[in-house]
Write a structure and sequence with these properties.
Number of strands: 0
Structural class: mainly alpha
Shape: globular
CATH class: Mainly Alpha
Order of helices and strands: HHHHHHHHHHHHHHHHHH
Number of helices: 18
Helix content: over 70%
CATH topology: Amino acid/polyamine transporter I
Strand content: under 5%
Largest sheet: none
Radius of gyration: 21 Å
CATH architecture: Up-down Bundle
Length: 455
């Protein structure tokens, strides 16, 4: 059965191309600032060990399940779930899981594009004038001015959505694969340049210790929940992206080995980002726990104070753009795949239609920082509602039901055939993890996200 079903959208040219694409989907703005920040606040190296444990017990088993489902179905997540459910003798209502992932990814893209557009502004600012002659107050005012300018935010949102739509419209090999083949190596090179510069700063040792020195006294139940959440969300699970990318994967490629490679690459990017960022922060005497402001306020202050800050700042924001771009194309792809399959649309038209709809939804996010800032639902702006709905509800539920479908709905014969693991023991370990351990982990993430479990 594996060899008979083929994707109408094409196939990755190699395992390496898929790893780059899936890693690109996983690596995003959160890897650059959130992972290092959360790591430092939760015990440094001790938290990293806990995070890796969660990745291997929760993240990788669900990733294997999602890729396996995608490759077996060879269609968009919606059609894949319907086809496989019927094939396994269950109700086609499982297609709702596909819908949940596609909608979640689509909504995330709508507001993610707005935030990613900020990187375009900072590339231009750093590249043309830099931050050298700006005071700390002026840099803060610069960021506030960006957020309160609806016209500028709309322009940046439009430009970023346009480059995302362009890549997706070109197809699997000519668009997605070609983009990640250039963007992901470039991202790693830029990261290494940043780390190399950071090693020359006086704050490197302090930044290294903040990120990697184990402090087990800081570990708590909250740290475990934080590690679980980071392990799940950083791998781009539950939003249909990994599933649709898996549908383009050759049947000869090992899903298990490839999933481990993706998880390790994603973690490596996050660690390198921390080693690049925190020495600069400590060298400039800034606060490492500044959250989102770390990127757009604290770091520009550091760039303005350091030698070669003009160049390093530009490199950093280009790095951010690449990370955001590779994520965004994976968020648009599931919807485009469904339009091509179910509405008989040509890919370029499907990409434009999906891109325009995501762009329209993103207008609310752009305006929620300025003209619509006073319009709130349960105390949340439009941007916050989109963020909470996807991150707190749709993604955890999507990951949970992916695990349930792979472990409880699919027959063992089907999953064993698709995974083609050489060792029966390896298959049994995966089955136990995805049946029992991973669902419990995702349920804890969900309960914490909706506020029933406190950090």
């Amino acid at each position: 059965m594996i060899s008979k079903r083929k994707s109408i959208h094409g196939q990755w040219s190699s395992r390496w191309a898929f790893i780059l694409a899936a890693t690109g989907s996983a690596v995003g703005l959160g890897n650059i600032w959130r992972f290092p920040y959360v790591t430092g606040e939760n015990g440094g190296g001790a938290f990293v060990l806990m995070y890796l444990l969660c990745v291997f017990c929760v993240g990788i088993p669900i990733m294997i399940a999602e890729i396996m489902i995608g490759r077996r179905g060879r269609q968009s997540p919606i059609n894949t779930m319907r086809t496989l459910a019927e094939e396994e003798g269950h109700h086609r209502a499982w297609s709702l899981l596909g819908w949940m992932g596609v909608v979640a990814g689509f909504l995330i893209l709508s507001f993610y594009s707005v935030v990613a557009g900020w990187t375009l502004f900072y590339i231009a600012k750093s590249g043309f004038s830099g931050f050298e002659r700006m005071t700390d107050e002026e840099i803060g005012i610069l960021f506030e001015g960006l957020l309160t300018d609806p016209g500028l935010l709309m322009l940046l949102h439009t430009l970023f959505m346009a480059i995302t739509t362009l890549v997706v419209s070109l197809g699997v090999r000519s668009g997605l694969e070609r983009a990640v083949k250039y963007l992901m190596p470039s991202l790693f090179i830029l990261l290494l340049i940043m780390v190399g510069y950071a090693m020359s700063t006086p704050g490197f040792i302090e930044g290294f210790n903040y990120l990697l020195w184990p402090d087990f006294s800081k570990l708590s139940a909250g740290s475990v929940l934080a590690a679980l959440g980071q392990a799940f969300f950083s791998l781009s699970l539950g939003m249909g992206a990994i599933m649709v990318y898996g549908s383009y994967l050759s049947h000869t490629t090992s899903i298990a080995r490839t999933s481990v490679s993706i998880a390790l690459a994603d973690t490596l990017v996050a660690m390198l980002a921390g080693l690049a960022i925190f020495p600069l922060v400590f060298s400039s005497g800034l606060e490492p726990g500044a959250g989102p402001g770390l990127i757009f306020v604290s770091l520009p202050i550091a760039f303005g104070q350091m030698p070669f800050g003009h160049f390093i700042g530009t490199v950093f924001f280009i790095l951010l753009l690449f990370a955001a771009w590779t994520s965004s194309i994976s968020l648009l792809e599931p919807a485009v795949a469904w339009l091509v399959e179910n509405r008989n649309m040509r890919r370029n038209r499907a990409a434009i239609l999906a891109g325009v709809i995501a762009w329209l939804l993103g207008i609310g996010s752009a305006l929620s920082f300025n003209l619509w800032s006073d319009y709130k639902l349960f105390g949340l702006t439009y941007f916050d509602v989109m963020d909470k709905l996807t991150s707190n509800i749709l993604l955890p539920l999507g990951g949970l039901f992916v695990a349930i479908f792979a472990a409880w709905i699919m027959r063992r014969e089907s999953s064993r055939e698709e995974l083609a693991l050489k060792s029966m023991r390896s298959y049994q370990v995966w089955l136990v993890l995805v049946r029992y351990i991973a669902p419990v982990g995702v349920i804890l993430i969900f309960l914490q996200a909706i506020g029933l479990i406190g950090l």
